[in-house]
Queue: 2 jobs
Job 1
Amino acid sequence: MTRLDVRGHLRHTLVGTGGVFRDSIALDRGKVMVWQAVYRGAVVTGLVAGAIALGVPENALGLGAGALFVALAGEFQPIGRRWRLMLWTLLWSMLGAYLGGLVSHYALLGVAVAAVVALVCGFVGVAGPGAGIAGLLTLVIFTVFCGIPENPVDALNTALLMGLGGLVQFVAIVVPVMLRNRSVVLSGGEQPVPLLRRLRPHLRLDDLMLRHGIRLAVAIAIATSLGEVSRLPNQYWIPMTVAWMSRPDAAGTVTRVTGRIIGTVLGVLLSIVLLDLAGRQPQPYAFAAIVGVGTVIALVFIWAEYPLAVMGVTVLVIALLALLGESADQSALPRVVDTLVAAVITVACTFLLRPRRG
């Protein structure tokens, strides 16, 4: 891309900043899901509280992540198709967590594998919205556990905990529907086209999603390398945030970046307030309750208002870290700084790696 092209893209972006900001805070009321979010958030909270009750709060992350990801998979799809998407998303997320843990001790290998995983997860969106969500969540969980050093046994344990949490959420969502109308659950609708057949026509360099996968691979590699070199606390936050922010198109990416920054700041502020209300030495179950609050907020707004969903995710992550012994003061400000760094990486890769004109 020439310098003139870059300036043109940036000028277009700056001129549209007001519109992007409005898009970032525009609530889609038709996609606000309150009761579903409360129900599914209660499952996540129950799993976290269960880990605390059993004396293994360190298992809360895997259990909660599995339950949260299953709750996100296949939304707005008929239940006969959705339950399949939930299981596939859970399976791929477990593999992402396991692979991330396996390479977490090897800096160069971790960067290389992260780039490959990002390429695949970014490109797989051509297979449809369900595959795109599964790819995004797989990349997110890979970046998290790639930044948390684990041995192979611990990595497998984490993946299995995710599977357990996801299956609990799966049962909570599917079984009530099955009890009311079993035939609706068992009907899968039209036979889906095999995945490889859907991907093959897009294996060309001018394809939007393949270019997105390549840009995402570069951005994730840079973010992962930065975490490895700097040895920042919770070094996974930067590549994880890049994964959440990146979109196939430039306008969508800028909107997502804006929303992410707004949501992170709001989430940090809300986390500080909630943890302060819990007292100077809160009981572990107070952290579980705050995780529940964050989860419900995230699930209510995830499809309707991205900044508010990010606020919820930030709250639940900070609460989980507090449960594991990290104070809010230690995790709050770094979350904002890491998000800003991730925003710079994401926007730079979006505009500097766009194809040349003409």
Job 2
Amino acid sequence: KIFLNLPTNFSSATPDQRLKTFQQQYRFVLDSQNNFQEHLKQTLSDIRRHRAEPTTLDDIIGDQRYECLRKTEIDKFLTRIQLLLNKSIFIEKLKNNHIKYINVSDVRPNQEIPMTIDDIDVVLKHTYSNENDSIILWYSSDRLKREEEDRYQQIYQELIWEVQHVEQRIKLVYIDFTYLKEKLEDFIIVRLP
């Protein structure tokens, strides 16, 4: 049911890839569940006909192939999907307020070479310095947003107000550092003329 609430496209490669991965994992879980049920059904039939011992059920239940069906694994999977759903709602809110969303994983020119926050900063400044309009880049992450929610809300409101009330045209771009290995320690606002 939760998949019905997820968008079909995030307009960002990283969340899109996560969605595809979750859809594949979900299909795998459904296939595993079908195989598990068939295996149990066949084994129960064999036990009734005295072709198998009841302890065979323990072997099936403990089989690593069905580990994804354990409650702890299902709960972890649902939590990750819920986080992606929350991300989709967040991205939609940004769009509704005319804020462009960019995931830093989509900025890296070469996915194989790890980049630091400073490297990404250079790439973003280079990319957006050629714009005709003024640009505000807002560096943030899910962790910062969660741990410093009041400050996040304050920055959000101030930037929205600025974009709406300043005479010159300003583009606001939210840069999401959530999936970068290096931890973004604080919100950063970069203004480019």
